[in-house]
Protein 1
Amino acid sequence: MKTEFTSEQLADPATATSAGAIRACVHCGFCTATCPTYVLNGDERDSPRGRIYLMKAMLETGAAPTPDVVRHIDRCLTCLGCVTTCPSGVDYLHLVEHARAHIETTYQRPLRERLLRWTIAKVLPWRRRFALALRLGRLAAPLTDVLQRSAFTRPLATMLELAQENAPRPAATTDAPCAAQRRGRVIVQQGCAEPVLRPEFRAAAVRLLNRTGYDVRFAPGEGCCGALVHHMGREAEGLGFIRRNVDVWSREIDAGGIDAILVTASGCGATIKDYGFLLRNDPAYAARAARISALAKDISELLDASSLPPRVNTPPIRVAYHAACSLQHGQKIVTQPKHLLEAAGFSVVTPTEAHMCCGSAGAYSILQPEIADRLGARKTERLEALSPDVIATGNIGCAVHIGARSHVPVVHVVELLDWATGGPAPAALKIGKETGTHAADA
């Protein structure tokens, strides 16, 4: 695709990257078949190819976009299914992030949208604030039905539903015997949403890693990975979170003996692996950020390269594996989780349209509730059609989004691996038994 950026515009690294991405697009249209919003709406402007045209015109002029342009760019989930499909290697991720940053600085959103986005940015990335918001949201439950009746207030209803369905949970025990053979030392990222919504994910990861031979460390002072605000176009805030984590993790690495930074939320992992790119032009951080990205791994990557502990339990259950977009498209991790589950003795099945996003996508389910709900229902229907005993995934957003729509318990892959190798049954299965819903136990 031909571009008409000026030499002055191309002197900006972000614009130069975007220009390269736009020029790589050959208009083939392969991306339309794998784009969730195009599949739902059938509107060219809601496809990656259509959005590239819109972003090209917006960035070349440098002017504030129209509300219509913003609407179609906002509808992008950043699931990166288009990147997996694209035969031309279009760097769609960094193009759409540049476009969103441009929108954030040049476009005046309606007051309601500005307040909603400000609230998300100031609450969700902070663990204590998020936990408090969930508790307060549960008190406002009677307002949910009223707010659902209007498209204007539906995002608020979605936030209240999140609070009602996901009360903050107490920390789970991480006690587990360490393996006789020590394999190394790792940092496990703590995250922001996961420890509030599903602390049992990290607890299972720590137990499993200890049992596999890894000494687990947490980095004091670590915060949100920056993904949530960065994908909203709030670039300065996102980079602030990123620099903070680079400082914190660098201190741990410099102290010696860190073999990897492990992530249990694949949405965070995709962003952390991009730290080197995002800070490439910052002389004070570029080298350290690149080192962080090189050490970052999804937990399934490390476990698949290691030998799992011997199986203690062989639960006779059928697992439907949901591949998070940030894992399969963002990090190109496709086979490892399924291989690990099968190696642990589980019967694993995958749904049709496994490449399609479930609709969670960070704050997307709040900002675009109508599309997110349609995608969530579509994904849940395909997973439940497999008649599984449990649904497993590798991302907190997917677990919460699908879990709100399915009668089948939703767990993290590491919870099942921990269970099979000597840990407790996943909490979601226990909760299911106690409430009389679908569940399984060894």
Note: The longest helix spans residues 235-254.
Protein 2
Amino acid sequence: MKLVYYRDRAGNFGDDLNPWLWSRLLGDLLDEDPREHFFGIGTIIGFFPELDGDKHVFGSGIGYRDIEPDARRDWRFHMVRGPLTAARLGLDPAVAVTDPALLLAALPWPASPRRHRVAYMPHHHGAAAGPWAEIAGEAGLAYIDPRWGPMRCLHEIRASELLVTEAMHGAIVADAFGIPWIPVKLYPWVLDFKWHDWCATIGVEHAFERPLPWSALREVTPTRDVAHAAYRWTRRRSAALSLRLVARARPRLSAEGVRTGLIERLLAMVSRFREQVRERHPATR
């Protein structure tokens, strides 16, 4: 069974968690056999139409593309990210569990001292659109770049007391480890649908904190034009002020009992999925 996930050349935290997580939970079942495919973390249902064979969905979400009716026969929905994905696909609501990145909290981790009072993590496209490390510093926030690589990002999230994030998997991982988080939307490409989808599974009502106007920077190239430089400086100051204000908003965090229950359910589903695969492929026993 081949692991399938979205790969951004620059890197993207949520998607890049896939090989690390699933190699530890399903490593003996994963290979390069193209007859079966495993879809885990990511808003990737409907992607990769060129793949033949069964596509096993274990917590993925839909949002950017739909599945053509004649292609549905190849998809096996063991669980999906949330109720909006299930409804859009016409699935039994019971299939809506949660995002599988929550499973990270079920693995052993060393203690992590909280070095950052507040950290900011942008969407991976937003990280490339402006000097957000510098802006976060001006706002008094630590900076976590979703392109750094999954383990470095994870280490920095766990070192934070509070995470302001435009990256949904920043929020998911923070929540998994009991770290409060605040969602913010600075750029229009951030998809509200997937946030509502996931938040519904953890009992948190979703609403983005809205930044000040002119906070969504789109330029990273320096300029010598005085007027343009002044304009950029104004927008940068607005962005820094926005982060400071957003960091004072009401933090979100699922109830501990909800998190624990979801993790236990996910682990049971992983175990059941392993047995199902072994029954179909006795050689993997």
Note: The chain has two domains: 2-106+259-284, 119-254.
Protein 3
Amino acid sequence: MKKLHFETYRLGQVRTDIQETEPVVRNADLLSVDLSVVRQSDAPGNANATPNGLYGEEFCQILMYAGLSDKLSGLGLYEYNPDFDSNGQSADLYAQGIWYFLEGIGMRKMDLPLANPNNYTTYRVTMEEIEQEITFIKSMKTERWWIKLPTDNTKNRYVSQHLLPCSYKDYQQACNNEVPERWWNAVHKMV
């Protein structure tokens, strides 16, 4: 996955800062969630359940982020097996996750930066390592962040800019003259 420049997050990384999963799901068109991502004690209703995984609360938080995404149009929840589900606990967790997803949809702000530039602040950071300027855009309404990716208009004359959801942490990293991994991966995927 790293060689193909996809963003991957290990369980420890998600636990350390779950907010870093928000830009990933914000950029998704479709989200597919397998119940085995949740640890067995929180969701036993899966034949492949293991002792380690997300806590139920973390599962619900990520589904809330997914619901907040203006871009997401589909959610799939998979691998629930009632034969393994003691006391309907996994079914309850899925129901709670769906509730948080729907709550997120109800709180959508439609704050894509292309809609109204007056609601955004632009930050430019010059990166010495790559001899390039990286542009960050911050929504004044939701305080969410995007990175503007370089485009080659010769390939697609209808695309003037690509915006990649990111976090404040990515901006801070750039300010410390460290190329954000999220930007690096996206640029390499475009090549």
Note: The mean pLDDT is 89.
